[in-house]
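RECORD TYPE: inverse folding
INPUT: structure tokens
STRUCTURE:
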């Protein structure tokens, strides 16, 4: 066969099962931690089906466009882009959140904070709260969607993150109860609030370089960098929140690994009442609940 003949040959007819096996192999060789799962999710996206359906379609021939799209997605994954960044969405608290490059991919650990607030406020609450550093809106939109009596103000320094929050609020039917404000923490934001929630940036600047490539290169630095000791945002929030809270108002904070004691110390110095601390499913200190004194 001549080279030209090879060049002129029609597009390869690939079966779904072959595509999956090839991608699995490439991702495994490229050092990706969960190659089979990632390959299945990306192939499902390219074929516009649910990941669970991919296996049962193994013998079917994939359309050329889907093959091209899938290969491009696998290349991006091999270059270190996380699966959810490639998809542009992530599920959080059983709802799908649209992502932009300016917002953190919401993490499952953060669901703990949502659960704890929902328990505290009960089913029939009518209250106004603030979400500092809303990112995709995962926390505030979930709370608003779960409790129709709540209204909220969400702040972020990133206009792209605020746009994602607005888009997600619209998708989940809560936009009319949410105000988004570009602000540092709660600067120029009118309280008082019944409670304040925040999952602030908490990685010490010196630790950023040691994060996985997926996080370091694809989550926005503004969402990660917590200053020299990782505690800058906590210091700022613990200092400004009392002026924005009603009497006995609560502050729910996600905390980073190894930061719990330092945050408790700061909270005591700033005269907060300590309500509780909570571990995540891996047994790590993950959040604190404080009360205005
Ligand atoms: C760790 S991310 C959390 C995002 C989202 N709440 C979540 O849990 O997925 C922190 C967020 O805080 C925002 N941020 C950083 N500094 C801020 C500041 N001074 N004021 C308000 N938001 C800030 C970042 O842009 C980012 O969206």
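DESIGNED SEQUENCE:
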């Amino acid at each position: 066969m001549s080279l030209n003949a090879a060049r002129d040959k029609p597009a390869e007819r690939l079966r779904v099962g072959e595509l999956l096996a090839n991608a699995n192999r490439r991702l495994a060789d490229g050092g990706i931690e969960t190659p089979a799962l990632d390959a299945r999710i990306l192939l499902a996206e390219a074929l516009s089906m649910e990941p669970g359906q991919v296996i049962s379609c193994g013998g079917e021939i994939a359309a050329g466009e889907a093959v091209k799209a899938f290969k491009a997605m696998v290349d991006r994954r091999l270059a270190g882009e996380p699966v959810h960044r490639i998809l542009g969405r992530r599920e959080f608290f059983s709802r799908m959140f649209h992502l932009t490059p300016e917002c953190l991919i919401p993490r499952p650990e953060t669901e703990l904070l949502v659960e704890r607030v929902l328990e505290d406020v009960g089913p029939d609450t009518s209250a106004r709260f603030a979400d500092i550093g809303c990112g995709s809106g995962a926390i505030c939109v979930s709370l608003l969607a779960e409790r129709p009596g709540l209204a909220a103000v969400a702040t972020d320094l990133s206009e792209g993150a605020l746009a994602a929050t607005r888009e997600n609020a619209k998708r989940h039917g809560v936009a009319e109860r949410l105000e988004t404000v570009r602000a540092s923490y709660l600067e120029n934001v009118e309280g008082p609030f019944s409670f304040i929630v925040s999952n602030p940036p908490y990685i010490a600047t010196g630790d950023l370089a040691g994060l996985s490539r997926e996080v370091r290169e694809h989550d926005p630095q503004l969402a990660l960098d917590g200053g020299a000791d990782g505690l800058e945002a906590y210091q700022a929030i613990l200092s400004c929140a009392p002026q924005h809270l009603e009497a006995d108002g609560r502050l729910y904070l996600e905390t980073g690994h190894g930061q719990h004691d330092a945050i408790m110390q700061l909270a005591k110095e700033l005269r907060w009442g300590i309500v509780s601390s909570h571990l995540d499913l891996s047994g790590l200190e993950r959040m604190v609940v404080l009360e205005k004194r």
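NOTES: The first strand starts at residue 89 and ends at 92.
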